Amino acid sequence: MFSSKFEDEIKKLKAIRTNLIVTTNYDAFLENLFGFEVNVGKKISGAPDNQRVFKVHGCQEEPESIIILPSDYEKFSINHKYVFSKLLVHFVEDTCLFLGYSLSDPHMQELIFDASEASGKQVLGNVFLVDYGDEPRELQSDAHFELMRDRRLAKINTIKTTEFDWIYNIFADGEA
After folding, report:
1. 3 state SS of 98
2. Alpha-carbon distance 70 to 120, whole Å?
3. Fewest CB atoms within 10 Å of the CB: 12, 19, 122, 142?
4. Which phi-psi region, left, alpha or beta, contains residue 100 (left: φ > 0; alpha: ψ -120 to 50)?
5. Mean pLDDT across 43-49
């Protein structure tokens, strides 16, 4: 199924324990790997404790849901509060792992600010963003990404690395 080069890493990824994976990827890799329920765009359904993959920017199986053009992003911004209200329970109660995101994404920043304000916490200790970095392994207890805009402050955990299997081990062991 996968190249033997990545087989071990994919096994470790599949073993992570989280209720929600939020991604901007359009492909079906994550839902096929985990067997999680899939929610696309603003279509978030099911109980908060259901395991799911949430595809914020659409899915190849629903081409009309894909967000690529500026006009698509404008429509997404209009629906942002609705999407956020559905995700809030996860941000507050669950461990959330963001894969394939950039913190330069204004929608990502807005979700973090809103979750921080809604929960009354400047540091969202249960939210992790995995980012490609220069070092093979870099995780510190104070490794937060700090966002500041219009006197709004919010922080999430960031993990920068060139190797991902050790991260998957942490989430599989429930240490995150």
Report:
1. strand
2. 32
3. 142
4. left
5. 62
Asked if pLDDT for residue 2 goes beyond 60, the answer is no
Residue type at position 44: I
Q: Which pair of structure tokens corresponds to residue 75?
A: 């429509």
The residues with which 159 forms a beta bridge, in sequence order, are 130
- Residue 127 tokens, joined: 């939210």
CA 91 from chain center: how many Å? 10
Residue type for 40, please? Answer: V
Angle at 115 between CA 168 and CA 156, to 5 degrees: 40
pLDDT tens by residue, 94-118: 778 777 777 777 777 777 888 888 8
From the number of C-beta atoms within 10 Å of its C-beta (0-12, 13-18, 19+), residue 135 rates as exposed
Distance (Å, rounded) from C-alpha 98 to C-alpha 158? 10
Q: What is the mean pLDDT of residues 131-158?
A: 69
Q: What is the 3-state secondary structure (H, E, C) of 65-91?
A: HCCCCHHHHHHHHHHHHHHHHHHHHHH
- CB within 8 A of 42, min separation 6: which ones? 79, 82, 83, 86
How many CB atoms are closer than 10 A to CB 51? Answer: 15
